[in-house]
Amino acid sequence: MEVAKAILDDIYGFFKTEGGELSIPGMIVKVLLILIVTRIVIKIAYMAIDKFFEKQERFKYKIESRKAKTLGYILKSICKYILYFIAIISILQVFNIPIASILAAAGIGGVAIGFGAQSLVKDIITGFFILFEDQYGVGDHIKTGEFEGIVEDMGLRVTKIRGFNGELNIIPNGSISTVTNKCKGSMRAWVDISIAYEEDIDNAIAVIDKISKDIRNNNDNIVEGPTVLGVSNLGGSDVVLSVIAKTKPMEQWGVERQMRKSIKQAFDKEGIEIPYQKHVIIKDNE
């Protein structure tokens, strides 16, 4: 017992001064513990937010899935900032730095800092109105300025857009002035099909109309159509027939691919020619 007590006294003396205050190693250990606890609490908060929005699906007045995901990202961002602020205050107290004097100095220098932080304040205010007005949310396909892609993350200060080439564009909310949201309502699927001038146009339209009905019956992503609009252009070597359909958001490209494939297969079966470039070589002796 005496040996154990002596060891504990040595450990206590290593982390405490004779006056009972924390020594430098003790301060370092306490700072590390504060940072570790902060990270753990942030993870727990994230899990609680995710769990809440998963359970809200069963609520009577449930939130739309897209909006719930966006609110989740915003709440996580707010929690992270608040917990890190508390951790910083706690670390300052470990080093016996007077918090009151720092806050007073911050108040005096607040005006000067405010001028330098105008863009930050603008980003946060714009982010709030983007969320409040439901301009877009996580998972939406949007275009703003030169950037276009899927909203992957949305915070109080920045919006992250994943381009279709894989690039992640991080855009300050304050610089977002005009947004085109391509996920509001039904999307348009448009397909142009070329046939040779020698083909019977009415027969080709009838074949496309028949295959369009089959596509509509077998694809739940189609809201309306496909509908054959008729002849949309007379090209140099082809007659262009246009087909249009309305689809669920983000499904228009898949529907267009299916329409092209099905129409091509139907044309091959019916012997309808789709014109393509040909090179005819005529020899002099012929």
Order of helices and strands: HHHHHHEEEEEEHEEH
Can you summarize the main beta sheet? 5 strands, antiparallel
What share of the residues does DSSP label as strand, in percent? 15-25%
What does the average pLDDT come to? 78
Helix percent reads: 40-55%
Determine the number of helices (DSSP H or I, runs of at least 4 residues).
8
Counting helices, strands and paired strands, the structural category is: alpha+beta
In total, the number of strands is 8
Distance between the termini: 115 Å
User: What is the CA-based Rg, rounded?
Assistant: 32 Å
- The residue ranges in which pLDDT falls below 50 over 5 or more consecutive positions are 2-8, 10-14
Shape: elongated
Strand order of the largest sheet: 4-3-2-1-5
What does this structure look like?
The protein is α+β, with helices and mostly antiparallel strands. The chain has eight helices and eight strands. It has helices at 2-15, 24-55, 65-94, 99-108, 110-116, 118-132, 201-218, 252-270; strands spanning 141-144, 147-154, 158-162, 168-172, 180-181, 187-195, 222-234, 239-247. The strands form two sheets. A five-stranded antiparallel sheet has the order 4-3-2-1-5. A three-stranded antiparallel sheet has the order 6-8-7, with helices on one face. A hairpin with a 5-residue loop joins strand 3 (158-162) and strand 4 (168-172). The longest helix is centred in the first third of the chain and has 32 residues, at 24-55. The chain is elongated.
